[in-house]
Amino acid sequence: MSDKRTAITINGIVKEFSAGSQMIRVLHGIDAEIRSGELTYLVGESGSGKTTMISIIAGILYPTDGSVSVFGQDIYSLSDNDLVRFRLSNIGFIFQQYNLIPTLTAAENASVPLVAAGMKRDEAVERGRAMLDKLNIADQADKLPRQLSGGQQQRVAIARALVHEPRLVVCDEPTAALDAKSGRRVMDLLREVALAPERTVIIVTHDNRIFDLADRILVMEDGRITHDGEEMPDH
Amino acid sequence: MTWIAIRMLTGDRQKFFGLLFGVAFSALLISQQLTIFINLIERGATAVYNIPTANIWVMDPVSRTPDVALPMPPTALDKVRSVNGVEWASPLLRSGATVRTPEGDLEGVTVVGVDDATLIGLPKKFIQGSREALYEPDAVIIDSVGAAKLFPEGFDPIGVRLELNDRRAVIRGIVDVDPSFTSQVILYTRYSNALAFVPGTRNRMSFILASASDGLTAKQVTTRITEATGLKARTREEFARDGVDFIIENTGIPVNFGITVALGFIVGVAIVGLTFSLFIRDNIKQFGALKAIGVTNNKIRMMVAAQALLVGLVGYGIGILLAAIFIASGAANSPDFKGFYTPWEIPVLTAFVVITMILITGWLALRSVLKTEPAEVFR
Lengths: 235, 379
Description:
In chain A, 30% of the residues lie in helices and 29% in strands. By secondary structure, chain A is of the alpha/beta class. In chain A, helix 6 (150-162) packs parallel to helix 7 (180-194).
């Protein structure tokens, strides 16, 4: 049973980008709460603001206004260096294009957050290997990313996101490059490994093949949340 | 993170070797050209250093180098000998002449006439023959590079008759000396023979070689000679430097070598800068991901610095090694490079140039990494 306490509190988030002399507002004062122990989907058309939203939640894009509290920490009140350290300790990232380092083996790629945190190479790689084992690709640990299939690369990316046991995992289109079967397997893995009472997973997607796996779906349109529920709204 | 940075770089073999090539090529070009330049201009001093016994050279006040000298009257020798502090003084004649080989070829030569009695002015190291051979009739001693120039490889020139300005000259020995700037054949003979070999003018004596008495420095004695005789007197080191300065001031060599060295630097910066930028651009998403994950800008700086350092060290090592092999092999096998060596200052100077190149290109590459927003990995 998962404990559904508030993991992330988003208060009045506004984000504006400059385009020449004009300022374009892409997020219009968003308020939301994300609970721990849930798979939360952020869904919307291209340009709806979901990528900007997840970037702000993950602490890699400063909002123009508003605040984000992740497990009780107002992340944008931290100094730049503290914010980087906070991300390193508390957030795991899964990118659409995986962004694995092509010249490192799967185990080495998985160990990157631990190395960045100062762990010794051998120990970090061993833990990366153990995480790959959890994700059932231990046999691919010594291969380079180009020697792996898309699904295997995504699992390595998941291993990298989870190896340091972050409390928040943010995923950008984790199944976009995968076939339906692989996509569902990846989502099952995410649910199995990432979800715990003190953890939460946010997934940006418009892959309707996996909507049924969400605990909660936030739909965004034109920089606003227009739907908040367990299922996609009927249109 | 350093090992990750190194693996990122070395794993992309094409770019890694491209970067190494850029640095190595630059280091090779710069060090090799500078070495040739230094050795070439130092040949302006070989005529002086080939006569180790004389630590003072006396000449007409307008004379500038061993090859740019106005002859003096014979009385100048007595004047110099009479100066207090001069241990000994002997005449030296240096003059251009034309020699005809047995095959009928013509070759410009430098005739050096040394003191008949003491043979002061003759190089010390003989490859064939001996100093005493110079007392034989019409005897000349040839330098080893000149012998290689005049005769085919493996040919023994001892006893060969040459036609030197319409007079008979017989090669009686070979000396080992560093060639002059022009690499002209040098024929050593006695002063009295030289007067006969070289077309006559009123004054014939090019230089007076002298030595300072015990307890006096060469510099002190040169001052005394100039004050007493009005002649120009230089210590060996000063006169050697005059020969080098003459080449620097009167030829386009420094400019030409300077241009080549500058091109080596510019081409190096271009190749390394471009390849490094391409490498960074290809990995910008990975760097962005690292920043998002929580790698600080300082660690990113260290990563790029480690990559630049590796490329710089290995590339510099390859370049310097190739340059040293080139110079050493040239010095061992080619008369044109005889006596060439690599002064320690050149690897040091090349290291500074490579460091500058790496700093510039590393900084350019780093700028784009630091400017990358971690949020870009989601776009």
